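In the current project phase, work has continued on tokenised descriptions of protein folds. One protein thus recorded appears below exactly as we store it.

——
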Amino acid sequence: MSYHILHLLSHQLQVRIELDQLRIKDRDTGEVRSVPLADVAVIVAAAPDTRITTAALRRMAELNVLLLVCNQKFEPVCITLPYYRPTNTKLLRRQVKWTDEWKTAQWRQIISAKVANQAAVLQTPERVHRLLRQIADRCAHPPPATPVADLSRITETQRDAHRSWTPDACESRAARHYWKHFFKAFGNNEHRRQPRTREGINGLLDYGYAILRTAVLRSLAAHGFIAALGIAHAAHAGSFALADDLMEPLRPWIDLQLIQYLKTTDEPDIKEWMPQAVQILTHEVLMGRSRLRLLNAIDVYVRSFASAATENKPPPLNIPLLDQSATNHEKGTQSGL
């Protein structure tokens, strides 16, 4: 799959398509640049006066190029997706009939990988790193549950112990330790994760997570999933529950990228952070015996989820792990206009 990420940041840009080339014209200077659309994975439009022709939008959809539109504060507010067209009817039939047992098994793998990636981000303090590793391992391989005929007949303590190694309990337990020490490293007035605050470190995280969500949605669309039908996140109007499910173990990639960015500046700026956040998609991860850019590794991950959804004996999910990432990240290929 293609991996270039194109930023449309300048004012007065006009985008049209010609022979599968994006022709991007600066209406102020008359300068025209050309980009092969087949090489583009994601387009980020952050200038309020950018004009994109319907022909260009149509061809983006046909080639599964996602367009992420930002507002004046550079917050993602809109995403374009291809109109749903199933490519695998067996997958479609399975998705609408997923059992609770199957969903829990997949969710357990996802949360185990998420906590393992959080441990890879939070190397210090050592005791917290070890604790997160233990939670990830125990979530992946929980102790056998003692059969209980009726949870209502046991004490609250016994009930908590019975449920203590569910994926949701593991995620919550890890989050309490992870975010406390994550924010402590920055020494500012933010102390916990607060989504959709649009300010400070939390706001930077929100933008980075939106980029990851876009990448996951791109692969889900390519494989024919219904993104609104998830395995753990609740579906509601306008939601992409399945993308929210599958992106959970990818979030720590953005967390680590943000830590590295904040080491280079005393005054974080969203315009500086935008290309830094997108750059994470070009970092390398080891998948089997191959090194792939994270954007393409996400497609391998989604493909493994599709296999798990259609095979009688689901194989393990192939989730990108931070401790398998390349030690020397490539800068990747991005364009800014």
The two ends are 23 Å apart (CA to CA). Residues 158-162, 326-333 have pLDDT under 50 and may be disordered.
